[in-house]
Amino acid sequence: MISHRPTRAEIDLAALIHNLREIRRQAGAMRSVLALVKADAYGHGAVPVARALEAEGVDMFGVALAEEGVALRAAGIQTPILVLGRVFPGQEEAFFTHRLTPCLFDLESARRLQAEAKQRAATLDVHIEIDTGMARVGFSADDLENVLQALRACDRLRIEGILSHFAVADEPDNPFTDTQINGFTEILALIEAHGPLPRHVHLSNSAAIFSRDIPACNLVRPGIALYGALPSAHFTGLDLRPVMRLVTEVALIRDIPAGCGVSYGHRFVTARPSRIAALPIGYADGYNRLLTNRGEVLVRGLRAPVAGTVCMDWTMVDVTDVPGVEVGDEVTLLGPGPGGCISAEEWAQEVNSISYEIFCRIGPRVPRIYTREKGVSA
Ligand SMILES: *Cc1c(COP(=O)(O)O)cnc(C)c1O
Fold it and tell me: How many Cβ atoms sit within 10 Å of the Cβ of residue 209?
């Protein structure tokens, strides 16, 4: 392989482990942790992230797709893996051959897995998801008696977990979260009337971990908090560290007079003699085109604004007010850098999105570079 251009995403695994410890501290030692590594660990790289978390003794991983689980197994990950998405027809076999745990929310999938288990003379641990108000996936609470009866007929599926998912936990004061907790607690009581509860009872995403204590639950499901971003702007004062830094270097500098248009459409026109730096990163790398004339980067400890349209492979920034900029200077587009931090929340606000999407969209042609530098106190 030839060496790549200087654009890269640095992933600080020490920060990841620090965040895991903060989550454990908040959730309490008696609760297990299911770490979400779906969507390539929110763009951070599922395999290196899962390896680092496995070494810390995380109890389970969560992925969205069976194929994401298969990729983790191929990389040697041994920890149980819960597949939160649906078991699509044709995927049944993978759950047995790669030891994946399905999350069930429709009986049709349950029956297909039961048939596969029977054929293999095997059993399969499953989790069942109940809809308590998200209206996405999950068995309807009203239908629970019938569902439990139908699942009892699937004698090769062992219910190892029960879960639900919050719709508005990112708004900590929203009482609907309590409505969902109460609904889930009632469901647990109903199940307990038939027999013991499954081994894992879980409800909390990152936002709920940091805003609710739910005595009935013994496992938590953090995602975004592991990566050091906030579930929403309502959460302040958390000791979470950004895991990803998106960086590049100044590739070219141009001094142009006042009245010059910059980049496609000349959406930026210099108001004064200006120094414009070209950065080798663009929307194909996940540097959102909506950052045109809006984004800011850190260079030489100062903020410099994006000048004009973000291109597919290039972005120009106005460095007129940054003394001494040279070709090869490091530029921070996301995360902590000299002189400050471009938070995922800040970037998300500029493009009317959330931190999650910013991370997920950092494209595959941006290499992830893993560091464990900043020693974390044990
Ligand atoms: C993605 C996901 C989570 C994690 O959510 P965060 O807000 O990132 O903590 C938890 N549970 C389910 C079902 C999910 O799909």
Answer: 24
